[in-house]
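RECORD TYPE: inverse folding
INPUT: structure tokens
STRUCTURE:
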């Protein structure tokens, strides 16, 4: 009877030690990985939700990258439009100066010609990743550009991509296909304050479809009359109005893209926090558990040793 009792005690101690070892290993895994739910068997519901949220977060990250590209395109166009507007304002100032008595119109025209060359350079250079909202080449026409703004998930869990549309007809400055598509290449006509008619365009880009045959390029010489200067100034003033509207449209689009990008970034952060609450372990709590389990294992090991040594102690009583 003594032998049976002692064997039962040793078995119980061994069983406790085995259980505590498994618990210790589980806690060590949580501390090492930082996860309390690392696979479906840990918690099927939490694991399923976290897996879905991770997939959605990858889509959000891709959308943020796409909005970053869209923002770069819009910002490049905005920068080009701002620089071009400043130069056109200078051209208008030169034309006003040319009305002064005794002004050297030929010299002023040389300055205007240089400014017009800069406009061509700016329009052609305002390109990012092959996208240019200010300049159209041969065979090209204004188009609506769709840019990713955000990603949404409906109640069924289906993802949809939201986009922002921008019509480059609002911002084209130079068109080598159809002159009427560009602010600088189309003709502007009307009446001056003195009642004289005018019809001018700023740049000749060699468009396949040129400006009106009755329109003249803005350029002056010593024979340019005051009435003609008034017409040129009026045409440039209208161009500046169109450029202001274009700049506002680009700016509004850029602002919407930036807002969408910031929202996507914040949404990713919130999603990461949500995932963490489901699957991440409380490392401080798990570290305390680990220490307690190690002490418990040590005590159980001592208990097992005592249980194993008891038969030897009892046998000495019968020898």
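DESIGNED SEQUENCE:
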């Amino acid at each position: 009877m003594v032998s049976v009792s002692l064997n039962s005690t040793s078995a119980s101690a061994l069983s406790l030690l085995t259980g505590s070892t498994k618990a210790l290993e589980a806690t060590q895994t949580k501390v090492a990985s930082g996860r309390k739910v690392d696979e479906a068997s840990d918690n099927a519901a939490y694991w399923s939700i976290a897996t879905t949220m991770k997939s959605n977060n990858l889509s959000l990250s891709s959308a943020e990258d796409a909005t970053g590209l869209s923002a770069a395109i819009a910002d490049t166009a905005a920068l080009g439009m701002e620089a071009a507007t400043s130069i056109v304002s200078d051209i208008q100032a030169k034309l006003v100066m040319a009305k002064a008595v005794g002004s050297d119109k030929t010299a002023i025209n040389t300055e205007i010609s240089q400014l017009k060359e800069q406009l061509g350079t700016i329009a052609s250079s305002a390109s990012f990743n092959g996208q240019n909202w200010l300049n159209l080449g041969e065979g090209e026409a204004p188009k609506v550009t769709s840019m990713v703004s955000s990603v949404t998930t409906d109640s069924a869990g289906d993802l949809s991509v939201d986009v922002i549309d921008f019509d480059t007809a609002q911002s084209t400055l130079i068109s080598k296909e159809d002159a009427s598509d560009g602010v600088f290449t189309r003709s502007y006509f009307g009446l001056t304050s003195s009642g004289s008619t005018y019809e001018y365009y700023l740049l000749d880009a060699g468009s396949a479809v040129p400006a009106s045959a009755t329109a003249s390029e803005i350029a002056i010489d010593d024979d340019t009359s005051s009435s003609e200067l008034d017409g040129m100034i009026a045409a440039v003033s209208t161009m500046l109005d169109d450029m202001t509207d274009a700049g506002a449209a680009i700016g509004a689009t850029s602002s919407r893209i930036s807002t969408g990008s910031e929202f996507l970034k914040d949404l990713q952060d919130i999603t990461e926090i949500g995932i963490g609450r489901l699957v991440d372990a409380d490392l401080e709590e798990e570290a305390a558990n680990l220490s307690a389990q190690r002490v418990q294992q040590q005590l159980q090991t001592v208990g097992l040793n005592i249980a194993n040594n008891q038969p030897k102690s009892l046998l000495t009583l019968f020898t």
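NOTES: The two ends are 17 Å apart (CA to CA).
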